[in-house]
User: Which sequence fits this backbone?
């Protein structure tokens, strides 16, 4: 059957896209009318709307609200086929992608494999402080957060109860800020009536940031507003605090430690494998250094986009690792390929248009930075909500998702508040590790 | 803290309910106004709407559509507290329930722990043919069904592809009938445009029943209608066929075997533990034999209800293991307890009022048996839909659930079509068994 893949695509130019994130999807969609055969390869069968991942982690949304089967997105794009498979290697000379069980030949390759969270060499922290990149991560965090309250309810000592009601989030970027705000509201508002022996509002939520302010990518005044908003929600913000160790008992840092059953990692990301696969130069995070037209140096037909690539922007900054940037890069590469098919000359280099930064703090506060315009509070929040709904348009049933999202979000619905997976007993019987399953 | 449980409830009568299924929830709600303290103990944090479980298994609904956190259901019932814990033993003399990490004393005990599926002593079949009782089961079946199509798309031989597109359901009861119909529609309608190398409509769906007809609990003419409706959907129905073995390659029975990657078990249920816990007489399925007032013989303050108990009905039949029966029994026990509090005399024995049987076959056919009235086809289907929506009323956000359910159900939405859990690679790395995680 292997040959079949090649045969089927023999006549037309074969564009292979690795990864069905925002960048890969945008590139594939922009090639809809092109006389090429597009193959999207992803190890998952769904596209994940990562900006809302933290809301699954805090049970505001269900996995199905933020994930859409890739096949569904392309079921009506006849020049696109989807393969669910693990990429194991890329052979640049043979122009072949090696997957589990098969090889896929390409004429043009778009690498949009994204990033994963990084523990900066302390991988043993992973079991104690899961990150938030995959759907599995979100449901695992959700399980831990909800289960912590359940365990606090049956705690036998006050110390135990305190520890089980303490949540430490490491990393003051958007993910950390959004997680801290959401957990605070889950504890202080949504679940306040649910328990009899504990009061969820006693929960202690601590956000630890190594730098001197939250949301480094934002202007300082917005960092201050974000911190103020979090503190108003009862979150303890600790800046200039570098974590030294994370274990089952809690988090330790210079000058102290916090006993906490639930730890969440939002501190850093890295790009695995690509440097080796492509024999390419990368930065310390593993992001591939690309040409101004997003091609891999020395390989005009290989592109690296989204979180996987390092693209200079302005003021010594790189293009940020956010959805709009990945989408712009995906569309740019598609237009470049179309231009080449038309025999076009060397195209303009990729130019990133920054729409702005948005971060939400709980339900009714947010900070927004649109360059000249800087907003915070309710106005920013509605902007943020609008931006997400806008993103959702174009996926299936946006209205239903919007209804569900708004209703969950505004009315603290409990529908998604499920502790997934096996019961503690079953987990013990299976010698289950801390990893749980998503969706 | 252990003593706290007892202290808090010291003055008032302590009613402990084991299991938050239909029976347990109904009993607890019916005690809302009673001068008693109700404690609901469940190893999960959610109530599961089991009649729709098969729709999660076939990706028509998401786990959050059919599961509601127990605490949410009782957050406004101040005399009810919820403990998420594994029951390990019941001490009838000390009137104490032993849970992981704590003991809970009771004056009255309502055992509503339900049933689980049974392999009739062939437990090694479990890994090859998951049943459909827990949310985890449903997401595992969903994962297997969806992943089978993905694997067929990349199959290297025709035999392999055929095997991966063959689905065998064992057991011709409502679960088996509903699963077979849903998988047929998933393959023949919902996913028909999603693949490029295979045609999901080539999928072979086989329903195997040991008895001489489907839906034994229904009148014969409805069994025939159900079989006709399934065959119209392209399901092969094999009655009078007793399964002899199930392994990774397929299912074998007297006179043949079927190579199938996906096998689903819907053949039987059993009640674990209770016979030992209660030192009680049980039937072969482990269901506890109770008095006409649902008390455990010799223990006026211990009740066993729902799937966990064997209650005679009529014509030598027992009360069926369906949601309405469990709810009626829960309400009956609550009223009996209220009667006792008022110093009432010995109450009337429990009398089951049978509303009827309903089973759905795919999207637009169903069979309904209301005694005199027997329906099939579209009318029965709308009745069935109405019955489910009616059940949903009383849980949170019934409208949203109804919208989501109807839209998913009528429009073949793909939102829930997620392959949960780790990627095959990750599963291998973790030496992962076949069990996956729910919700």
Assistant:
């Amino acid at each position: 059957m292997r040959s079949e893949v090649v045969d089927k695509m023999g006549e037309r130019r074969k564009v292979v896209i690795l990864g069905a994130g925002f960048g890969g999807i945008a590139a594939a969609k922009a090639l809809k009318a092109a006389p090429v055969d597009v193959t999207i390869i992803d190890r998952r069968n769904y596209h994940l709307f990562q900006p809302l991942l933290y809301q699954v982690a805090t049970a505001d949304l269900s996995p199905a609200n933020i994930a859409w089967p890739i096949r569904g997105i392309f079921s009506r794009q006849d020049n696109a086929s989807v393969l669910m498979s693990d990429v194991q290697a890329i052979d640049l000379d043979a122009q072949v992608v090696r997957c589990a069980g098969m090889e896929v030949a390409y004429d043009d390759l778009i690498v949009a494999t994204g990033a994963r969270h990084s523990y900066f060499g302390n991988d043993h922290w992973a079991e104690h402080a899961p990150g938030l990149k995959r759907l599995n991560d979100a449901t695992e965090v959700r399980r831990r957060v909800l289960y912590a309250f359940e365990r606090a309810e049956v705690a036998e000592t006050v110390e135990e109860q305190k520890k089980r009601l303490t949540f430490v989030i490491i990393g003051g970027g958007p993910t950390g800020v959004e997680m801290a705000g959401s957990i605070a509201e889950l504890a202080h508002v949504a679940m306040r009536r649910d328990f009899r022996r504990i009061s969820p509002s006693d929960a202690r939520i601590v956000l630890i940031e190594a730098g001197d302010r939250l949301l480094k990518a934002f202007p300082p005044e917005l960092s201050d507003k974000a911190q103020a908003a979090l503190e108003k929600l009862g979150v303890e913000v600790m800046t200039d605090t570098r974590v030294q160790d994370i274990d089952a008992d809690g988090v330790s840092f210079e000058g102290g430690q916090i006993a906490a059953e639930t730890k969440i990692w939002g501190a850093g990301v890295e790009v695995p494998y690509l440097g080796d696969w492509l024999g390419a130069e990368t930065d310390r995070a593993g992001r591939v250094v690309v040409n101004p037209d997003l091609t891999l140096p020395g390989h005009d037909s290989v592109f690296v986009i989204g979180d996987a690539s390092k693209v200079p922007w302005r003021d010594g900054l790189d293009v940020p690792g956010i959805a709009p940037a990945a989408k712009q890069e995906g569309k740019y590469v598609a237009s470049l390929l179309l231009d080449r098919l038309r025999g076009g000359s060397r195209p303009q280099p990729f130019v990133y248009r920054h729409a702005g930064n948005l971060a939400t703090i709980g339900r009714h506060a947010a900070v927004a930075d649109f360059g000249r315009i800087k907003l915070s509070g309710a106005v920013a929040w509605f902007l943020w909500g609008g931006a997400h709904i806008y993103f959702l348009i174009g996926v299936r049933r946006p209205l239903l998702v919007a209804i569900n999202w708004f209703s969950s979000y505004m009315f603290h619905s409990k529908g998604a508040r499920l502790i997934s997976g096996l019961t503690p007993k079953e987990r013990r019987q299976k010698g289950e590790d801390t990893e749980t399953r998503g969706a």
